[in-house]
Amino acid sequence: MNSCRKIRLLWLIALPLAYPSAAQIVNRGEHIDLTLEGYANATAGFSESGTPPDRDRGDDVRLDAALRALARWKNPSGPDVGFRAVVESSPENHGRLAEASLLIFGKAGRLEIGERPGLPDVLTGYAPNSFAFTGGEFGPASGPSLDPGGGLQHAFLSPNLARQLNELAVLGATASLADDRSPKILYVSPKHNGFLAGISYGPNADDPRFDRLLQTGLVHERYWSSNILRLGGSYTYSHARSGLMFDQGSVRSFNAGATLILDYDWMLGVSGTWNGKSGLARYPNVTVSDAYGASASVNYNHGRWTAGGYYQWATATGDTLLPGNDRLLAAEVGLSYRFTTKLRLYGAVYSFDFDDEGGAQRTDRHHGTELLFGVRATL
To answer: Does 70 fall in a domain?
Structure first.
C-alpha cells in the first residue's frame, strides 16, 4: 500500500470516531454513578529496515480501541463499591474482555480484585501513571503507546523481531512483567505528604514460565510554585513455575526514576531497570549476563502542541545457549496537535539499532527507521 493510500485510510478510520461531544459519558444517579469512556487510536507505520531484509512485516495500518464502563455505588455510611469492565480491540485481539474488576473506594485507599494490570498502576490505562518516569507525551495516552516499552513503535515490524525488541524496550522504562493481565488483587494507598504506594498480587502470571506475581511501587511528589518533582520506583517478583523441562529462575526486577515538571510545560525524565540474572533458564556450564537498561526523555507542551523525544539503551542475555548479549539502542522524536479535547494528531520518527546476541554477522544486526503517524479520538 503506498503512502497516500495509507494516510487516506487512516483518516477514514479515525475521523468518524471524533464526533461525540464529551470526553466521557457520565450518568449520575442518587445512589449509582455510571461512567463510559473510550478511545480509538489509528496509526500508520512507514518503516525502512536495515539488514537483514524485513520480509515478514506487520500491517501498515492498525486500529487500537477500547471501551471502559464503571458503575460506582455511593455508600453514605462506608466505602463506595464499584465494578469496572474494559473491552479492547486490536489487530492481535478483536473484542476481548481485558479487565473485569471489583473496586472498593474509601479514605484508606483503593482496593481492586479481578483480572487487570498490576503496577505500575494504570500502565496502559486512562489516568496519569505515577509509577513510570519517562515517556512520549506526544503519543497516545492509552493502548499501545510511543513511550519506551509502549510497543507501538515495533508493531509494524516482523513479529519475531518485535518480540525481541519489546523484551528489551521495557528495561529502563519499567519493571519487568508490568503489563501482566492476570487475575490479581491490588491496593493503592491514598496520597499522604506526597507519598503514594501500591501493591498487587496474582497467583498466576500470564507468562507461562511463572506463577506467583508480586508487584510493588512507591513514589513521592514535591510541589513548589508551578513545578513538580516525582521520585520513586517499583519492584516485581515472580516465582518460576515448577515442572518445566528446564530450571527457570524467578524474576526479580527493580525500576527507579525521576520526573521533573517545570511550569507545567517541560517534563524531563530519567529511569533505569535492573533484573540481574533473574528470570533466565539455567543450564550447566553456561554463563549468563545481567539484564538492565536506562532511558531519558524530554517533552514540551505549548498550547495545542506537544513535542518530545527519548533515548534508550538496554542489554540482556537473549538465548542462554548462545554467546553474547542482546543490545538495543533506540531514539524517538515526536510531535502532536490537539484539535479538541477529543481529537488529536500525532507523529514520530523512531530509530533503532539491535545487536542480536552480540553477533558480528550481517544476519545478527538489525537497524531501521520508522515514520509513525496517527489519529487519536476519545468519547
So the answer is: no
Over residues 252-268, the pLDDT tens digits come to: 999 999 999 999 899 99
The span from the CA of 51 to the CA of 35, in Å, is 49
**Higher pLDDT among residues 165 and 120, named by residue:** 165
Number of domains present in the structure of the chain: 1
Strands 266-276 and 251-262: antiparallel
Q: Give dist(CA 178, CA 118) in Å, integer.
A: 6
pLDDT per residue over 99-151, tens digit each? 899 999 888 999 999 988 777 655 444 555 778 899 999 999 888 999 999 99
- Cα-Cα end-to-end distance for the chain: 30
Residue 13 domain-assigned? no
Dist. CA 317–CA 291, nearest whole Å: 7
Which long-range contacts does 16-21 make (Cβ < 8 Å, 24+ apart)? 17/65, 17/377, 18/339, 18/340, 18/342, 18/343, 18/375, 18/377, 20/342, 20/379, 21/342
Residue 28 placed within a domain? no
User: For position 242, which CATH number holds?
Assistant: 2.40.160
The domain in which residue 245 lies consists of: 43-63+118-183+191-378
Q: Please check whether residue 206 is in contact with residue 180, taking contact to mean a CB–CB distance below 8 angstroms.
A: yes
Q: Is residue 8 part of a domain?
A: no
Cell numbers given for 182: 492476570
Block residue for cell numbers 459519558: 25
pTM of the model: 0.86
Q: Does the pLDDT at position 4 exceed 80? A: no
pLDDT band at 165 (very low <50, low <70, confident <90, very high): very high
SS3 readout for 231-300:
EEEEEEEEEECCCCCCEECCEEEEEEEEEEEECCCEEEEEEEEEEECCCCEECCCCCCCCEEEEEEEEEE
